[in-house]
Amino acid sequence: MYCLVKPFLLIALSFLVTTACYSPVIQKYNIPITSSPGCRIVQHRLGETCIPVKPKRIIALDPRYLVDPVLALGIQPIGMATSIVRGKESLDGLTPDDTKSILNVGDAFNPSLEKILKLKPDLILAMDFAHKNIYKKLSEIAPTVLVNYEENTSFKKNLLYLAQLLDKEVEANELLLQYQTRIKKLRKQLSCKPQEIEVTVLIYYQGAFVITKSAHTSHEIFSDIGLTNKINLNSNEVISVEILNQYDADILFIMDHDGKSKPFFLKHPLIASLNAVKNNRAYFVDAIKWSANGPLGVNRMLDDIFKYLPQKSYAAPHQFRVK
């Protein structure tokens, strides 16, 4: 169970440990890229693609895994696809302001080939889980790289992959150093040792609770902070409210996709009986914001985490992207 008061000596020791664990390290993602006159040849899951050395008209077909990191790297796509959740457009961690200058080419799982063609892209970024079946058609429009989801579930690893692809590795490491700085600051402000804090993240969707898989971005962030994730699963799993107590933790985050109010949840006796709820450590967070998998969305998640984790003082929201 987390502590709320930490002696001065522990604060000092925590600072030293934090500094040692999170010293800035320049990272690189080694993907097979070879040079050819006028382009760079990139190997990926469905073969190899000759992409422009400096692409200027990029279409990114997923907001979470592609648009967010590309924007953070300082590149403005000309087109993008969006997620559709229960018939509504979802930007998965981004805001309308982030994407206001990008033309929408439809649903990420069913983008409009006609709209893509009209935009005359010189590079299309796609995801294997959504676009494998239309890869050939996309490639006939423009050079297309299919990003492997299983190899890039970590938002940091995915950023580094795209950075090497787009020759933006310096910018990617700047973003990661800014992220590490925020993580260090958060650890320093915690009121106790991070590993003493146990955390659970649940999704509420279509009237059911879903426990989040270990690859969820929130788990990655909490692990970087040093917190203990109560759940460690390879996939999301629907659970009944009757077994919620098995996932009770010091702090509980609920990503509510259904737009319910806090009283809606707390009126249920099995939810109200959870220790996190009784200790006022249950937080209902924006499900779209917490669906992020890129630096812009992760930064907004960190703003929430700064507010909710037990700490000595609150840090003002911070915005990072390549300057």
TrEMBL record:
Localization (cell): Cell envelope
Pfam families: Peripla_BP_2 (PF01497)
Classification via InterPro entries: ABC_transptr_periplasmic_BD, Bact_iron-sidero_bind
Main location: other
Phylogenetic classification of the source organism: Bacteria, Bacillati, Cyanobacteriota, Cyanophyceae, Chroococcidiopsidales
Protein name per UniProt: Periplasmic binding protein
GO cellular component: a single term: outer membrane-bounded periplasmic space
GO biological process: iron coordination entity transport
Record family assignment: Belongs to the bacterial solute-binding protein 8 family.
Record's keyword terms, sorted: Signal, Transport
Domain Fe/B12 periplasmic-binding: residue ranges: 58-313
Organism: Chroococcidiopsis thermalis (strain PCC 7203)
